User: Which sequence fits this backbone?
């Protein structure tokens, strides 16, 4: 169990927000980060308040990763100084309140002595709990030269840079460096997970920073924060794509639009692969071709009707067949009851003739001829 301590280089006396913070820092910051900073400041002023990551996440309706991202952001803005344990868990937070003559310069950052830390420490226990997946907008900062210099001097970051350089088989570009620091600091990927990310993308012959960033953000949104989870996700990803391709009779990789459809089926509708395969099979029977849009309509209909397993589809089919039979019977009955329409050939009453009538008419015809 790790603990977080709060320290300040000045005595604020109350929860006061600096005008410099409001004028200089707040406008360019993500709204979620501002909210978290303000509540951390509130916690610092009142030691009785709960400050565990899990509590903050619940209190502010954010995930623990959101809290950690906000802390890293304000650390880069030099409004917080973070002390971490060897496992990278946060153990202390020091506030460096902005002033008119002390803005974002490394040389002006105060040094925190043990004496100051002991005098102003506010320690709270932090219970590490698993993050619940939650789709969020991850703020991507633009690292300055000074920030890049500081971060790239870290041994772990150096290892990442060298490893990625070998995987890409070229020198790192500025966009590559910005991306790696973003994944490490803002997204919170470990060095091992970043290595696996690049290894995975290169294995697919995808080396562009934009593609790698897209995959990384997708992983973060799905709660993938370890190599083990990433391996399981990529294996499932490949198996699912192969299953859909097989159902559609395709021998190629899915296109961008097709991937969006499949992502929707798995992550928005949360369908198992067997349900998706059934929709693909029905699409092929109905259209005779791999129509992702047609399959999407089937799956969307099933999703709206609460389908979660094969048995639900069987029930829907039975209900549909029963309703179709009733409709057909009603239509047939309505047709049978419909009266014969009148026309000019049968619009008058028909006369009935007896045998005597026919004999009388025959006799008259014979008399007329004579």
Assistant:
């Amino acid at each position: 169990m790790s603990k977080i301590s709060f320290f300040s280089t000045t005595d604020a006396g109350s929860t006061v927000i600096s005008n410099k913070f409001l004028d200089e820092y707040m406008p360019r910051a993500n709204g979620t980060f501002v909210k978290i900073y303000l509540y951390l400041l509130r916690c610092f002023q009142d030691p009785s308040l709960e400050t565990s990551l899990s509590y903050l996440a619940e209190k502010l309706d954010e995930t623990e990763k959101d809290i950690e991202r906000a802390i890293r952001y304000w650390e880069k803005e030099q409004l917080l100084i973070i002390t971490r344990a060897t496992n990278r868990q946060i153990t202390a937070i020091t506030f460096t309140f902005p002033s008119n003559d002390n803005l974002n310069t490394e040389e002006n950052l105060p040094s925190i002595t043990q004496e100051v830390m002991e005098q102003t420490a506010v320690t709270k226990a932090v219970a590490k709990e698993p993050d619940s997946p939650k789709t969020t907008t991850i703020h991507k900062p633009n690292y300055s030269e000074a920030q890049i210099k500081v971060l790239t001097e870290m041994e772990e970051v150096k290892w990442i840079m060298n490893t990625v350089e070998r995987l890409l088989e070229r020198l790192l570009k500025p966009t590559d460096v910005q991306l790696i620091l973003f994944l490490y600091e803002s997204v919170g990927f470990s060095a091992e997970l970043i290595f696996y990310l690049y290894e995975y993308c290169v294995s697919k012959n995808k080396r562009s920073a934009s593609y790698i960033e897209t995959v990384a953000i997708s992983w973060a949104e799905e709660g993938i924060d370890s190599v083990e989870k990433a391996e399981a996700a990529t294996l499932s990803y490949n198996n699912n794509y192969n299953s859909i391709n097989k159902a559609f009779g395709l021998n190629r990789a899915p296109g961008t639009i097709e991937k969006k459809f499949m992502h929707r089926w798995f992550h928005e509708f949360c369908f198992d692969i067997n349900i998706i395969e059934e929709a693909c099979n029905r699409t092929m029977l109905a259209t005779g071709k791999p129509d992702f849009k047609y399959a999407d309509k089937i799956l969307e209909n099933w999703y709206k009707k609460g389908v979660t397993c094969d048995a639900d589809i069987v029930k829907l089919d039975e209900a549909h067949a029963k309703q179709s039979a009733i409709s057909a019977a009603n239509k047939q009955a309505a047709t049978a009851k419909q009266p014969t329409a009148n026309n000019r050939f049968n619009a008058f009453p028909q006369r009935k003739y007896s045998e005597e009538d026919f004999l009388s008419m025959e006799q008259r015809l014979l008399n007329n001829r004579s």
